[in-house]
Specification:
single chain; 199 residues; alpha/beta; Rossmann fold; eight-stranded mixed sheet; six-stranded parallel sheet; globular
């Protein structure tokens, strides 16, 4: 691994699963040398030897995994890159944090914000004046209506929907296809129509 990871001007992707492979496909990193760092490799990685000219991406949907890696990057003065596909529509006064990954055909509406290291999958809609916290992940075809606030370290499953003005605290998972009709304050997993806490 040492010969691969520590050379200059290389793209380093933390993650070796489908999200990482999709990032490579969507990113079209032509003529770039790419290193995929698996969870096992990451646990033995000497971050201090990564060249600061490398473009680094965190291709994990798990908020806790992303958070731990981001902490190690910060400790070693390494910056993560963002990837926003060129098909993404971004409204006026929208703000994107550092290290975000946003896949094709997503809409980020006016005056919304996406927190650092958050991931938004394909064909999602982030409504106007909505805030997505740090290290959150939103899966394909999900819709976050206007004036919603999503805290840090949350995971929103495929085809989930939040009606306007919903507030979600931190460390919450919303199951695929769920519809959130009221604020969620307690950590845990919510599922159903309407979404209810299941554990």
């Amino acid at each position: 691994m040492e010969d691969i990871v520590y050379s200059k001007n290389r793209i380093i992707i933390f993650g070796d699963g489908d999200l990482a492979k999709e990032l490579i496909s969507f990113g079209k990193f032509n003529n770039s040398e790419i290193s995929l760092i698996s969870k096992l490799d990451e646990s033995n990685l000497d971050y201090s030897k990564i060249d600061k000219s490398s473009r680094i991406f965190l291709a994990y949907s798990n908020p806790k995994v992303k958070s731990k890696i981001a902490e190690k990057l910060e400790t070693n003065n390494l910056l993560a890159s963002s990837f926003v596909h060129n098909s993404v529509l971004i409204g006026s006064n929208a703000n994107l944090g550092n290290g975000v990954i946003i896949f094709p055909y997503t809409i980020i509406s006016n005056n919304s914000s996406i927190g650092d290291f958050s991931f938004i999958n394909c064909s999602c809609n982030i409504g106007h004046h909505s805030k997505i916290g740090k290290f959150s992940s939103i899966m394909s075809n999900s819709s976050i209506s206007g004036h919603c606030e999503i805290g840090n370290h949350n995971y929103i499953g495929t085809n989930a929907n939040l009606i306007p003005n919903i507030k979600i605290k931190k460390n919450i998972t919303i199951g695929a296809g769920s519809v959130v009709l009221k604020n969620l304050k307690k950590e845990g997993t919510y599922f159903g129509v309407p979404a209810k806490k299941i554990f």
